[in-house]
Amino acid sequence: MKKMTPFFLVVLLFLFSCSGAAFAAEAPSAPEISVAITNPSAIEGKPVYNTDIQIAVKNLTDHEIKGLVCYLMIVDVGREQTYPVDEFGPQAYQTRAIESLPAHSEYTVTIPVKITYVGLFKFSASVMNMEKNYIVTADPLTVHMIATSKLNKTLVIAVAAVVPLAAAGLTFILYRRRRSMEKK
Amino acid sequence: MNIHVIKKEVRESLYANRGLWMILASVCILSVLCIVVVNIKEGSVLAQSDLLQYFIKASLFITLFVAMVLGASSFAMEREEHTLESLLLTPISKLNLSIAKYIGVLMVGFILLLFSIPYLIAVGAGSGLTLSALLIAFFIGVILLLAFSAISVALSVILQSSKAAILTSALVLLILSFPAFVQSLLKQSPVGAALLKIDPVACCFGLMNTAFIDKISIFAMPQYCLPPIIFAVIAIVLLEWSSGKVALKGEK
Fold it and tell me: In terms of Cα–Cα distance, which of B109, B130, B110, B126 is closest to B118?
């Protein structure tokens, strides 16, 4: 038994040394930056909402990071589509470059948006490292634009049915009058 | 101004040039559009201000198109049907004749604008935007109608055939409307942004958007009001200039 114990210890050490390398290969590399939408925390508005979306980009490393680009994406949950971001204000589509982010420092990007659509949206802010080719995305911001439409569908359909009939009647009467005048 | 000539031209626009049928067709298109937009999912989630904007744009486009077709065929048809000679033999000046034809086209366009009132009232009911929608539709509609009708009548004088005049008029309308429909693309370049500032149709759309979304009075936005007004003045001057060129084929 005394001879077996060192043998087991050696085997265990060998196994640990092998598995360590295997686990290390699968573990995600530590993120260099963190991205978060700090303000507002949620939006519930109607029918038009103007706000500045503040995105905090933090360098988690002990070295300077260069060549970062921050941008906004919008997902329309109800309609199952993304939007051209410029429909959410003239400055929403522009990317914001962060040329240099010193070690352990934070930079706040402000993107003004103007929401005129009704529905449920998720605003997502991402930061792309142009040098190392990776993207870090913040937790999405929920935007709920409440429908204020008081559209009277019955009235609209009634008008859509009645007006052409009235126009057809008027056309018919005018043409008949014209013809009778021509005969005279 | 000879009132009889104007009456004759209005009657001609309505009856001889199938203006009445065009009005009926336009009303049917607006009705179909109403029913479709109200019933599809996308339409039902749109805000009423957006729906109102779509309807104003649709009714404006139809009105302008009909007016331009009628305007473009006004002198060209007279020439093709050999009735221009008898008109020129009357003691009415060429300018008065052009104005009479212009008013005839404007009347049809105005009737079409009037037909859009019930639709706008129905779509805007309950939103509190109906009155401003009507004001905007008529303000923009009348300015663009004055401008595009003048251009089409002028083209009818300048070009020899009705086909060429109608096609050119439609092209003018499409070219000037194009920047308004690709605003998001154009505003990304300085040239495109400058183009959007002077394009009359884009200015009208911008005016409408700002008035509905930001609730600003249309008279407080000269940057949007001036280009269409200047465009209308230029078009009327073009009509006045072209009226001197009313002549039979081959006549100098």
Answer: B130
- Cα–Cα distance, A30 to B110 (Å, whole number): 69
Q: How far apart are CA B70 and CA B162, in angstroms?
A: 10
What's the confidence (pLDDT) of residue B10? Answer: 83
Which residue blocks in chain A are alpha helix, DSSP H? 4-26, 153-183
Interchain contact, B35 vs A157, CB within 8 Å:
yes
Fold of domain A33-145: Immunoglobulin-like (2.60.40)
Q: Which ipTM was obtained for this model?
A: 0.82
DSSP β-bridge partners for residue A145? A45, A119
Nearest 5°: the CA angle B172, B115, B42 is: 75
Structure tokens at A64: 């300077």
Name B164's Cβ contacts closer than 8 Å, sequence gap at least 6: B76
Residues of chain A scoring pLDDT < 70: 1-30, 46-47, 84-86, 147-149
Tokens 């084929």, residue? B249
Contacts of B46 in chain A (CB under 8 A): 118, 149
Domain boundaries, chain A: 33-145, 151-184
Q: What is the mean pLDDT of residues B61-66?
A: 92
Cβ separation B42–A84 shorter than 8 A: no
CA B61 from chain centre, in angstroms, equals: 7
Please tell me which of the candidates B46, B126, B188 has its beta carbon nearest to residue A152: B126
Q: What share of chain B has pLDDT > 70, as a percent? A: 95
Residue B69 and residue A165: Cα distance in Å, rounded? 24
